[in-house]
Amino acid sequence: MVNVNRIVYAVFQTPNLQGQIDHYTKILGLTLVERDGKVAYLSTSGDHHSLVLREGSEARCEALGFQLPPTADIGEYENQIRAHGLKTERQADPQPSIKDAIVFYDPKGTRIETFVQAVPAGVDFQRCGISPNKLGHVAFNVTDVQGVVGFYRDVLGFKVSDWMGDFFAFMRCGPDHHTVNLVAGRNSKMHHIAFELRDWSHIRDACDWLARDRIPLVWGPVRHGIGHNISIYYRNPDGQIIELFCELDQVNEALGSFEPRPSHQDFPQKGKVWEDIQFAANMWGSGPPDGFLE
Fold it and tell me: Where does the record place the VOC domain (predicted)?
């Protein structure tokens, strides 16, 4: 079975294209690498783009882009996806830097764009703004957690790293503890998008950058029990939650456990179902504000 091995980009529709471009370039510190009419492509660095902003009638995440191993045969991969009863479309040049992709939809309606090769933009990190290392993960509210977990596990090859009770799954497609999060909700929609920062001092500096523009945190700083990352959360101009994090657990697949950290509770730390919901959410104390998970 060929599995995706990393997330490369997320695609957003926005009714406020210029406002979102300004936020992601001037505050978050991404580079605008290309703009084609009503579509903008922005990069943290390395990849041609980490974020696609597309002018539209509503603010929502409409697609995720995942890379396949370099030895993968994309035609065979399409047959593999179709074997699950899914309708696929093979697209030429679906995104700048990507020549060939297999496109299909997950059960909640998010478009999944998979590809083998992508040409990097060759841009440096920004010298202003927060300037994150990379796109880390995307979290969604879903009405059928088990069903969507099964899709990401059986179709895309993700693994479950941890569960919070029976309502919140943390899934990975590479060494990072989670790449996609799925939490039970009344409606299916994106909950937040997360970018990795360097360390705790980078989190501090990010708070100062946000404060300069009077952008308040909605939660944090926190130390999550699940994943053990230090995180802050705020909202962008479209009202979507952005997480900035560092020190996320790394999974050693050969050992079946996480790389050891002083913040761990178990030695070795392995994936499990966390029943202490408060501690799983924030080892440092305060839980999320009311309505945060919705």
Answer: 6-117, 134-247
Sequence-distant (6+) residues with CB within 8 A of 79 are none
- Tokens 């299909």 found at: 104
Largest Cα–Cα distance in the chain? Answer: 53
Say if residues 228 and 248 touch (Cβ distance below 8 Å): yes
Rounded to two decimals, what is the model's pTM?
0.96
DSSP notation for 61-124: EEEEEEEPPTT--HHHHHHHHHTTT---EEEEEEETTEEEEEEEE-TTS-EEEEES------PP
DSSP state letters, 12-51? EEES-HHHHHHIIIIIS--EEEEEETTEEEEESSSSS-SE
Please report the pLDDT score of residue 46 as a whole number: 86
pLDDT score, position 123: 87
Question: Residue 146's Cα: distance from chain center in Å?
Answer: 19
Q: Which amino acid is it at 106?
A: D
Give yes or no for a contact between 89 and 104, defined as CB atoms under 8 angstroms apart.
yes
Domains (ranges, CATH) in the chain? Answer: 6-115 (3.10.180.10), 134-281 (3.10.180.10)
pLDDT digits (tens, 9 = 90+) for 13-41: 999 999 999 999 999 999 999 998 899 99
Phi, psi of 20 (to 5 degrees): -70, -40
β-pair partners for 246:
230
Is 196 in contact with 132 (CB distance < 8 Å)? Answer: yes
Q: Is residue 90's pLDDT more than 90?
A: yes
Reported confidence tier of residue 126, pLDDT bands at 50, 70, 90 = confident
Torsion of CA 161, 163, 168, 174, to 10 degrees: 0
Backbone angles phi, psi at 132, to 5 degrees: -70, 160
